[in-house]
Write a structure and sequence with these properties.
Elements (H helix, E strand, L loop, with lengths): L3 H9 L7 H16 L4 E4 L3 H13 L11 H10 L1 H10 L6 E3 L4 H10 L5 H9 L5 E5 L6 H12 L3 E6 L5 H5 L2 E4 L5 H24 L2
Parallel strand pairs: 1-2, 1-3, 3-4, 4-5
Helix pairs in contact: 1-10, 2-10, 3-10, 4-5, 7-8
Length: 212
């Protein structure tokens, strides 16, 4: 079982012991989605928007381990163009596909201007999401309307939903397949615990797919 990173996480942040099961459930959802060729869509507001981008950065390139592209991919690139393919095979890194919904300024500003701004993440889920993908909504309150709308849209399209929130009761927990509720209620303290949680998830996924 790929749980050594959870043990390290809890040894460093003992209060997160209450989240152990939820973290493992979230990992299993993501691992299965990636094994089946699917992707992660992630969003949040303010500091949680930055966390969304951070998560994508850890998944889409090397984090702690080397991620050489698979041999069949390297061989095909070299077949297509020996010179360019060799450079690609040497420098490309294996990726776990993830998209932050907090960017895409032309799309988001156009949609917010033309329609309901609270539905902007839901619109992106509607466009990017396919059955088997995973949607992760990050909200310190667990009640951010744009995240809730996106979670409903995700479930309707056949995506699994992971919530990352604080300890207070929230609507996102009822919409999510699993909700990781870190044991804090003040925004900045919640955010301080969100980072080690998603780092743990990223390390677990990287170990499973790229560990020797």
């Amino acid at each position: 079982m790929n749980d050594e990173h959870i043990e390290v996480l809890i040894s460093r942040f003992p209060s997160l012991s209450t989240c152990r099961e939820a973290i493992m459930q979230a990992y299993n959802i993501l691992r299965q989605a990636y094994a089946d060729g699917h992707k992660l869509l992630v969003c949040g507001n303010g500091g949680s928007a930055s966390d969304s981008e951070h998560i994508v950065g850890e998944l889409m390139k090397e984090f702690k381990l080397k991620r050489e592209v698979y041999k069949n991919q390297a061989d095909e690139m070299k077949r297509i163009d020996p010179e360019l393919g060799a450079a690609l095979a040497k420098h490309l890194q294996g990726a776990l596909p993830a998209i932050s919904l907090t960017g895409h300024s032309s799309l988001t500003t156009a949609f917010m201007n033309d329609s309901n701004p609270e539905l902007v993440f839901a619109q992106q889920v509607n466009g990017y999401g396919t059955p088997g993908d995973v949607f992760m909504g990050i909200s310190t309150s667990g009640n951010s309307k744009n995240v809730l709308y996106a979670a409903v849209a995700a479930r309707a399209k056949g995506l699994k939903v992971i919530g990352l929130t604080g300890a207070a009761p929230c609507r996102l927990s009822s919409l999510a397949d699993v909700c990781i509720q870190v044991p804090e209620t003040e925004t900045y303290k919640i955010q301080e615990l969100h980072l080690p949680v998603y780092h743990c998830l990223c390390m677990m996924l990287e170990k499973h797919f790229f560990g020797k």
